[in-house]
Amino acid sequence: MPASEAPLEFETNGRGAILRCPCCLESYVHVDDVYMSGRPREDGDYVHVHVDNHGRVTQGDEVRPPLAPEAGRRHSVGLAGTCESCGDRFAIVFKQHKGQTEVYTLAQEWSPIN
Ligand SMILES: [Zn+2]
Questions:
Q1: Spacing, Cα 8 to ligand 1 middle (Å)
Q2: pTM attached to this predicted model
Q3: Cross-strand partners of 35
Q4: Under DSSP, is residue 103 helix (H, G, I), strand (E, B) or coil?
Q5: How confident is the model at residue 108, as a pLDDT?
Q6: Could you report the per-residue pLDDT of 84-110, keeping only the tens digit for each?
Q7: Helix (H) or strand (E) holding 1
């Protein structure tokens, strides 16, 4: 899964920040899926949970979450979405590692769940 070194980018509209697509930088994006890759203990096995935009929850080996290129020592949270402008699917991943939160943007290469 390719990762981008680019940080998240936003534009403003007077009401707050608007997320830009990590792929094309346009602002018409939808964040639809949440992935939690929990680790009950440091460096342990992941427990993956997916919540889609209908509120459906899936847990277990069938969940294919976005993960940073290298595993951190603890859990990872991913937000996945689509862009109206370029049509790409992307993920924003927050990875806990040694007391810090690393942020990655990834191009989605996994299949939709359900
Ligand atoms: Zn885009």
A1: 13
A2: 0.85
A3: 50, 78
A4: strand
A5: 74
A6: 999 999 999 999 988 899 998 888 775
A7: none
Distance CA 77, CA 28 (A): 22
- Ramachandran angles phi, psi of 68, nearest 5°: -60, 155
What is the whole-number distance in angstroms between the Cα of residue 30 and the centre of ligand 1? 10
pLDDT reading at 17 higher than 90: yes
**Which amino acid does the sequence have at 36?**
M
CB distance 102 to 95 below 8 Å: yes
How far is 34 from 39, CA to CA, in rounded Å?
Answer: 16
The residue extents of the domains of the chain are: 3-107
Residue 81, token pair as written in the block: 């979405």
What is the Å distance from ligand 1's center to 39 Cα?
Answer: 31
> 11 CA distance to ligand 1 centroid (A)?
14
- Say how many Å lie between the CA of residue 43 and the centre of ligand 1: 34
Q: Can you tell me which residue has the tokens 């509209």?
A: 13
